[in-house]
Amino acid sequence: MLDLGRKNEILSVINSDVKFYQIIPPFIPITIRDRIRVSNKYKLLSCSLHKHLSSMISPSMCYLKDEAEYIKKYGNVIAENQNACRDSGDFHHNIVEVTKNINIEDWVFFSLSRDPIERFISGFSNICIDILNMEQRALCYNCGSNLSCFITTLYKDVLNYSKQNKIINYFIAAHFFPQNWMCDYFQYFSKFVIIPYSSNRKKKQQFLNDFKNVLIKANVPEESQNFIISKFNYTQTIHSTVNSASRQATVKMLYESPKLVEILYKIFYYDFILFNYSIPKQYLPKEPPAETLNEYRLK
């Protein structure tokens, strides 16, 4: 049950007069709690975002803190063990907490990116349909499974945050706000090795290869590399929405409304640009925004 103050904040966003023409700006800093994980042993830092295999990345980073201790304590399990090492001091809200005591030039930073539309569909189907149906938890601006209500409110919420830096729904922000706002990318974007992730099985091998290359770059021993990669290769997380009825319903609802798709491209425009995902011609802005991003663009 929402308290009255929070409910009024949400209603003020829902009822605000917005024309849905503005492209949401890039690199607005937002702190998502405990998303930065480190392995001091290998001088490896990850930013583990929701809907980006975080339930696998986080325990993998714990494993790389001390492989033998991890196996002794947790066994061979990686998936859904994201709270492993929570009390170790290696969970951080932001990178500044980490850089106080290290020389970042010696470290490897990595994160995952995801096609913004795929990420949105996964998030909406899991949170606004599955969780609502199973747990009766109204997490999606009280829109229920109404896609139009949710997307238009999300746009207003994101636009409002870009101007006021005020979160009205932390859970939604953590799962749906632009990826380029997170991970302290506004400050460290060029430092990160960013690995494209997709639930599309045809892209899985490339993801595994890219991830292994990060582990090699960090001088992780081959045995530890193989352990982690094997877990990613053969495990499906409980929050996966691949082939689910809710995902199929979300895709159908979304693509039956080109206007809603257009709003999503305005919200996530810079995710497409910065993480090298293509935008269909019909959704390209008539005049590209003024921001110059060449210095940030992935090579």
UniProtKB/TrEMBL annotation:
It holds the Pfam family Sulfotransfer_2. GO terms for molecular function: chondroitin 4-sulfotransferase activity. Signal peptide: none annotated. InterPro entries: Chst-1-like, Sulfotransferase. One of its GO terms (biological process) is chondroitin sulfate proteoglycan biosynthetic process. GO terms for cellular component: membrane. This is Sulfotransferase family protein. It comes from Strongyloides stercoralis.
